[in-house]
Amino acid sequence: MFLVALVAALAGVLTSLTVLAVTGRLPGGGAPAAAPAAPASRVAPGAPAGWPAWGFTHTQNSVDPRSGPAQALADIGSQPVPQAVPIMGWGVDNPEPRKGGYNWGTLDRRMQAVRQTRGVPVVTLCCSPDWMKGGAPGTTDWSKLEKPVDRAHFDDFAALAAEVARRYPDVRYYAVWNEFKGFWNQAANRWDYEGYTDLYNKVYAALKKVDSDIRVGGPYMVLNSSAPGVQSSGPPSELAGPWGSMDQRDLDALKYWYAHKKGADFLAVDGASLPQQPGARVDEFTALRKFSDATRWLRGLDGGLPVWWAEWYVEPAASGWTDEHRGAVQAVAMMEFIEGGASSAFYWNPQGADANDCAGCLWYGSAHGGGGTPTLQNLQSFGRWFPPGTPLVRARSSNPAVRVLAQPHRMVAVNTSAQAASARIDGATLTLAPYEVKWAAR
């Protein structure tokens, strides 16, 4: 009986090791979990001086040196912020319609806008020309924008990345691809993290060959989550909180990339605070803790790699939120990023063709003066008062509805309720209007 039991036990161990070797996970969904890092004691721990922290991404409709709006360009430049630019799509033409034939016009103008507004330029290396993913040379089918690069053209995409780096030598930061677009293994019901990581490694090597000081990051994984009590279609998650639970397949992809990358200068992700399930009832402020919990988990993988949120979203469709409500949620989101230890967060600007009535946009339409909105001012204030390296100071609020983030000389307080609220902070009483965001000296 002892020998039978021993053989059975050994078989079980071998089975577990085999599954672990193949999938990177233990049977039953268990996996060696990253130990979350402690909350940050200073802004952007691990990031060097001058790191691009709190900024935005240029999307389909953006500012332009030719067409303006002039006031938006002036307002962005009044307090410079980092600005990310994709190389294809979202307002940028195909940069290489056929092999070796480049088309830099729209990308040049985007880069000019960043320089004109004194921003730190960041390039997102997505997406790829059609001929790299099965299309005919010289054509661009925008409906196929999110198709992945064919493996046979990984070297061609890396060569394009190097050409971009040579054309814009002032760009020091590159994120590789966007949300694993197209890299999905349908048969295994998981991300094709092997394919993405192979592409990433080729791009990383090509960029470092151009200039070893270029900062390269990935995997730009989207962090999806399910509402509390709801299980995703993947395995059980190792990361959960009052906001719900993370899709373990996203975390597995991150861990594979981390283990097999040739190198990295930052760790890029994106995601929404709210769960994937439409209509799920999760308090919008409680949901924001996902950002700090996920950031601390990521820092637990490698405390030396700055955590970079390439996109972030907080608002459900047709929310009906007022500008004040939206501003309060966005400000608390920034607090969660900073307290969790994120080094960067880039706001995905939802600017429309006619931005005269555009919820959450960074500037108004020309008919309304074209100037910066409170959303832009919010980003700029965090950039001004909470740059990387700033010490964080514990400031207690007597009212749980009033959130506060402080450094030695400045603080920001947010009323998270629809009613006026007062709180004792630093020994003084602060009164805020519904959803008010208030910056104050300390």
From TrEMBL:
Signal peptide: 1-21
InterPro entries, per the entry: GH, Glycosyl_Hydrolase_39
Keywords: Signal
Gene3D superfamilies: Glycosidases (3.20.20.80)
Highest taxon above the source species: Bacteria
Name of this protein: Xylan 1,4-beta-xylosidase
Organism, as annotated: Actinomadura parmotrematis
Organism classification: Bacteria, Bacillati, Actinomycetota, Actinomycetes, Streptosporangiales
